[in-house]
Amino acid sequence: MASSLFGGVQKPNPLRSAMQAVNMMRNANPEQVMHQMMQSNPQFAEFINANKGKSPEQTQKVLDTITGNRMADMQNQINQLQLSQAMCGVVRYPNTFAYNAGPSPFCGNGCCGTANI
Predict the structure, then answer these.
(1) Does the CA dihedral 33-38-40-41 come out positive or negative?
(2) What's residue 78's pLDDT?
(3) End-to-end CA, the chain
(4) Across residues 19-37, what is the average pLDDT?
(5) Cα 57–chain centre separation
(6) Residue, of 24 and 116, whose pLDDT is higher
(7) Sign of the alpha-carbon torsion through 39, 42, 47, 49
(8) 65 — alpha (psi -120 to 50), left (phi > 0) or beta?
């Protein structure tokens, strides 16, 4: 029962959508199903158009490459997060000086020559 509060719009049921797709595949021509899917999903249409005439092995090779790139990107992100977590709370002071602009605030008053007390 749809509520007037939400305008009577119901969320699509993924199970119902899957069952409709299965029934369509059983009862309809696969070419018609593919065209219908291409009309409703632009990403699917782009994939089909990009892979027309390719063998399943070539298509799988492209998909494996994409998956490998995504996995490498995710591993890089994990490494960056681990590094930032390890460095959280660590104060890094400079260990070299490019030029002398007076006594360093990091050395204290006596480590870089004469102490100005």
Answers:
(1) positive
(2) 93
(3) 83
(4) 78
(5) 26
(6) 24
(7) positive
(8) alpha
Q: Which of 3-12, 13-22, 60-69 has the highest mean pLDDT?
A: 60-69
- The total of other beta-carbon atoms located within 10 Å of residue 48's CB is 14
Q: Which tokens is 38 given?
A: 């291409």
Q: Which amino acid is at 78?
A: I
User: pLDDT by residue (tens digit) across 33-53?
Assistant: 778 888 888 888 888 888 888
Q: Mean pLDDT across the stretch 86-98?
A: 76
**Residue entry with tokens 């994939």:** 47
Full DSSP string of 73-112: HHHHHHHHHHHHHHTTT-----SS-SS--SS-TTT-SSTT
Backbone angles phi, psi at 45, to 5 degrees: -60, -40
Determine contact, residues 10/2, Cβ cutoff 8 Å.
yes
pTM: 0.32
DSSP string, 5-70: GGTT--PPPHHHHHHHHHHHHHHS-HHHHHHHHHHH-HHHHHHHHHTTT--HHHHHHHHHHHHHHH
